[in-house]
Amino acid sequence: MTDPRLAGLVQTLPDLRLLTDPADLEHYGRDWTRRWTPAPLAVALPSSVAQVQAIVRWARGAGVAIVPSGGRTGLSGGAVAANGELVVSLERMNRVLGFDPVDRTLTVQAGTPLEAVQNAARERGLAYPVDFAARGSCSIGGNIATNAGGIRVIRYGNTREWVAGLKLVDGRGELLDVGRGLVKNSSGYDLRHLTVASEGTLGIIVEATLRLADPPPPTSVMLLALPDFEALMQVFSTLRARLRLEAFEFLTDRALHHVVAHGAQPPFAETYPFYVVTEFAAGEAEEAAALEAFEHCVGEGWVVDGVISQSEAQAAQLWRLREGITESVARYVPYKNDVSVRISAMPAFLAETQALLAREYPHFDVVWFGHIGDGNLHINVLKPDDMAQDAFVADCERVTRLLAGALQRHGGSISAEHGIGLVKKPYLSSTRSAAEIEVMRGIRRVLDPDGLMNPGKLFDP
């Protein structure tokens, strides 16, 4: 412990677990972007709300910036500590605090993994329906801080819809209890919703009260092969009209190629340009409706092959083709775009974006997938082995500026569910007006007057 400022923190909180080993600094100082060299001052692992408050108050006095840290599975640089910040990891604050069977809410500490929340809800005969592939690694605090979405947004919405209340330690060290689980509350500004998607710039989320849902119905999973891009929205419209959709995901042949190379089972004897993985409520009537919808799509030329799961094991195998994409391309350290438009604008936006990427990335491997049912598209650009990282990122950022312009024309967002962080900060103005950004700066100044909470993220001071 070489920095003298840390002696004051140890004196203030002698029981605080504090890490300064270089390996720990590297591990806790970065997220999944891997684009910045981590260089935090230290890593604090508080075990209580009181410790978090004391850390923030010490940081104010010492002039040390703070980077809140959950599972660090983010893809926008929102949890990067590269400039001597104190990382405050909530991983030790991972307990279920309470369950209310009448209100059907579960209260958890912010470091609780998403999968643990899902399991706790299931043990109580209910469900926490927000779900995505990083469920075992990400934390509920990070989910709230980025308004995480995932594969079932079409049915259940984003994280925001399931937050009944939360507790936030703001940049002054004050504990704010916002929302309080009320279904109706018209007593002024909703600070709960303000905190959701704030990316740690207003404070550290320490606790959340989450709404729970009825257990999902039995479902079936269907994988469809499509001959061309134009068929995608026709298939979605057909299935949405005839089935109770739980999810509707799409991926390209390149995405499937990488997942199969990573160990997944090829679904068909032939390779097709595009695929859809969709999950829907199951039953005899629903299975018949699904078969009729499939036959209609085949008759229209929108679908050329398909399979419906006949067991939970087969359903999991089909889902792996979609959920395994991120892991299968991770070794390439891909440049990622996470964008959204209104579903009604999706056909025109997809056509323009497909042409844009084909023109600007002629020699790059571009892996597309996304939650088409809620207007969210993920674009992963893989770096060629013989290209320098700096040159690769610079070229990708050039194209992202063009993509941001297309999003602005179609009324879309540069960040659908990953947050802005460091990666997308230069493009925030394509989604938010100058007046909106100034309002956000003003709100931040009130809750974080010293500008110490996750500085440099989302927007500059």
Outline the structure in words.
The chain has four domains: 5-91, Uridine Diphospho-n-acetylenolpyruvylglucosamine Reductase, domain 2; 96-211, Uridine Diphospho-n-acetylenolpyruvylglucosamine Reductase, domain 3 (2-Layer Sandwich); 219-326, Alpha-Beta Plaits (2-Layer Sandwich); 333-418, 2-Layer Sandwich (Alpha-Beta Plaits). The protein is 35% helix and 20% strand. It is built from 15 helices and 16 strands. The strands form three sheets. The protein has a seven-stranded antiparallel sheet with strand order 13-10-12-11-15-16-14, sandwiched between helices. A five-stranded antiparallel sheet has the order 5-6-9-7-8. Helix 1 (5-12) runs antiparallel to helix 3 (49-62) and helix 8 (231-242) runs antiparallel to helix 10 (284-300). The longest helix has 21 residues, at 389-409. The model has no long low-confidence stretch (mean pLDDT 93).
Strand order of the largest sheet: 13-10-12-11-15-16-14
Cα-based radius of gyration, to the nearest Å = 23 Å
The amount of beta strand, in percent, is 15-25%
Helicity range: 25-40%
TL;DR?
35% of the residues lie in helices and 20% in strands.
List the topology elements.
Layout: H1 5-12, E1 17-19, H2 22-28, E2 42-45, H3 49-62, E3 66-69, E4 86-89, E5 96-100, E6 105-109, H4 114-123, H5 140-146, H6 153-156, E7 163-170, E8 175-178, H7 191-195, E9 203-211, E10 219-226, H8 231-242, E11 245-252, H9 253-261, E12 274-281, H10 284-300, E13 305-308, H11 312-323, H12 325-329, E14 335-340, H13 346-360, E15 365-371, E16 376-382, H14 389-409, H15 434-447
Parallel strand pairs: 2-4, 3-4
Antiparallel strand pairs: 1-2, 5-6, 6-9, 7-8, 7-9, 10-12, 10-13, 11-12, 11-15, 14-16, 15-16
Helix pairs in contact: 1-3, 8-10, 13-14
